[in-house]
Amino acid sequence: MDHSTESYHRTDLMTITRHVLNEQSKHPEARGDFTILINHIVLGCKYVCSAVNKAGLAKLIGLTGNSNVQGEEQKKLDVLSNEVFLKALVSSGRTCILVSEENEEPILVEPSKRGRYIVVFDPLDGSSNIDCGVSIGTIFGIYTVKDQENPTLEDVLRPGETMVAAGYCMYGSSCMLVLSTGSGVNGFTLDPSLGEFILTHPNIKIPKAGKIYSVNEGNASNWDEPTAKYVENCKFPRDGSSPKSLRYIGSMVADIHRTLLYGGIFMYPADKKSPNGKLRLLYEVFPMSYLMEQAGGQAFTGKQRALDLIPKKIHERSPIFIGSHDDVEEIKELCGAF
Ligand code: FDP
Which fold has domain 16-204? Predict the structure, then answer.
């Protein structure tokens, strides 16, 4: 089936629901629970997309006056997005534990509404970009619980490797949902006239090597030697090749989306001020690392493969170097990890 824009007038469009149902048919034991869960996440994404699009008009720009668990000031859209996703996920009847960036503790879904999935998510990532209209996004990762009747914290504190799906939705010039259920990565664009996400980017593969590096260079004075050397080599390549271009939006979803499509590397390294970097393991680093590996890239913490990390706390942070295979390989060598 050709999903290109030239064939957009076709009537057999691959919506995200159709796609997930197709995936489900490969698992004869599946009962449709995952499809229902994804449909509820999709509903949350559409709601947040609509709120982001009219944020200025609907007076949704600005602060609430409160701080979240990370001590960061909460924006009105952060709070609204969190409420939207919490309600959508609980009402799906398919979740048992929810971990949100905005909630200090994991949320245990009441027994009558429980299902077997755990969802970790950042309802609105890149909050500092909300008020100037730059792309922002939602990130999510999905695990299955061991015992649905007795969900525990141990079910959440597991390596990213054990996720069954991950994705993000980018609220940008168009609204795009990128999803992996463990067999490749697919991108869906929201058609506002249909209110449906349509498969526009099937089987996304990241280029093996890229020409872009993406990092907050304002932190350079605090970097360790491997990071400093890597960035130096991006600017002044020792092998005589052309320097790489720097692109940094400061919104993880947008920076990762570009990296996935164009290739290159995105990094938020450890530094003297933040020995664990800035990005949160469970709902930023893990889902993006899962997607990146599924697209043929790599994700490295500076010490090990990101998806192998075992979290100790739900809001734990981790350094991350993520992107094209060859680019991440270079930083791995500089860090002495082979
Ligand atoms: P933000 O603080 O705007 O919410 O984890 C949050 C995040 O954005 C990421 O989206 C982004 O990649 C990173 O922080 C940007 O951090 P710096 O401002 O330190 O570069």
Answer: Fructose-1,6-Bisphosphatase; Chain A, domain 1 (3.30.540)
